[in-house]
Amino acid sequence: MSDAWTPQVNGVVRTLTTVADELRAMGHTVEVIGPDRFRTIPAPTEPSVRLALFPGRRLRRLVDDFRPDAIHIATEGPLGLAARRLCLARGWPFTTAFHTRFPEYLRARLGIPESLTWRLMRRFHAPSAAVLVATPSLHRELATRGFRNVAAWTRGVDLALFRPREDRTGFGLPRPVFLYVGRVAVEKNIEAFLALDLPGSKVVVGDGPARPSLEKRFPAAHWLGAKFGEELARAYAEADVFVFPSRTDTFGLVLIEALACGTPVAAYPVPGPLDVIDGAPVGVLDEDLGRAATAAIALDRAACRAYAEGFSWRRCAEILLERLAPIPQPAAPDQGLRFEQPSAAAAD
């Protein structure tokens, strides 16, 4: 079950779609239940994100038709809550994932105290057989915040798509080219990148609710909108440095996508970048983001690619399989694995 699902564009959706494809390639049957199957309303502060409206009854029918062997709840929104209630009512075990720092996001967007949201998040995940997290630092943080059954679930990268290019033109812009890729939203702290005094050019790939205001305030940056597939991979490869200004991401899938394209990273020394870079000479982490960005220019692009080759989507899918909690009832012999995914808004 997942409230974060296509046509949304973010790291959670990319992770879930890629892992589902890997599981299918391994011979399992995967069913993703997302908001696209329900009546929806726009999420507060972000109308492009749709939230399922009263999904409980239809969700039960979808689950009963599918007859899952295991259920994974990927998000904490309306679908995730409905799936959680269904599992608890039936005595079914389930796993969850902690993809998004909703306490920080909701404070930044709506002014909701973090302590309240953390309490709701603990309650949501408490019955989970395993709360899957992408990084060691997030694992430690959740444990200190009272989360139980926290387990590692690493990420991967498509090394065939995200790769270095020989014919790099830097978008035809003055070099060095500093690139941001991701959602253009307040919690991504993009302003910290756009306000830097850097040589060359700044490029933003992505879209989101903060784009109109930021594009008006920073017209010197080059705003290319959302890119996908080959266009996205080429954008990473064209840049000289990938700048990651977020302080709240739980992993930062874009970091390893950039590295796979041979582009070094500049970021703050915070969870996510600290876990991904882990002291390797493929990025510069500094509280002075401008200093990090200019220093990263000198890093070896071949070393960036070699480092990214250690991240595998197949292993990511295998870890999920290992963590899933089977529903204790016999399944038809030809059914294979049943796997579902939940929502992206926090409430209970």
Characteristic terms for this protein:
disordered C terminus, 12 strands, 348 residues, four-stranded parallel beta sheet, globular
List the helices and strands and how they pair.
Layout lengths: L10 H15 L14 E4 L2 E7 L3 H11 L5 E2 L4 H13 L4 E3 L4 H9 L3 H12 L5 E3 L2 H9 L5 E3 L24 E5 L8 H5 L6 E5 L5 H7 L4 E4 L3 H10 L2 E4 L8 H8 L4 E3 L5 H5 L5 E3 L3 H8 L4 H8 L4 H11 L25
Parallel strand pairs: 3-4, 4-5, 5-6, 7-8, 7-10, 8-9, 10-11, 11-12
Antiparallel strand pairs: 1-2
What do these coordinates show?
It is built from 14 helices and twelve strands. Helix content is 38%, strand content 13%. By secondary structure, the protein is of the alpha/beta class. The model is unreliable at 342-348 (pLDDT under 50). The chain has two domains: 11-156 and 313-323, Glycogen Phosphorylase B (Rossmann fold, 3-Layer(aba) Sandwich); 170-308, Glycogen Phosphorylase B (Rossmann fold). The strands form three sheets. Strands 9-8-7-10-11-12 form a six-stranded parallel beta sheet, with helices on both faces. Strands 3-4-5-6 form a four-stranded parallel beta sheet, with helices on both faces.
> Under the CATH scheme, which class of the largest domain?
Alpha Beta
Strand sequence of the main sheet, in spatial order? 9-8-7-10-11-12
The number of strands is 12
Residue ranges: pLDDT <50 for 5 or more in a row?
342-348
| CATH architecture identity of the largest domain | 3-Layer(aba) Sandwich
As a whole number of angstroms, the C-alpha radius of gyration is 20 Å
Query: How many separate domains?
Result: 2
The secondary-structure class comes to alpha/beta
Count of separate DSSP helical elements = 14
Average of pLDDT: 92
And the CATH topology of the largest domain?
Rossmann fold
Task: Note the run of SSEs as H and E.
Answer: HEEHEHEHHEHEEHEHEHEHEHEHHH
Determine the CATH superfamily of the largest domain: Glycogen Phosphorylase B
Strand content: 5-15%
Distance between the termini: 16 Å
Largest beta-sheet characterization: 6 strands, parallel
Helical proportion? 25-40%
The gross shape turns out to be globular
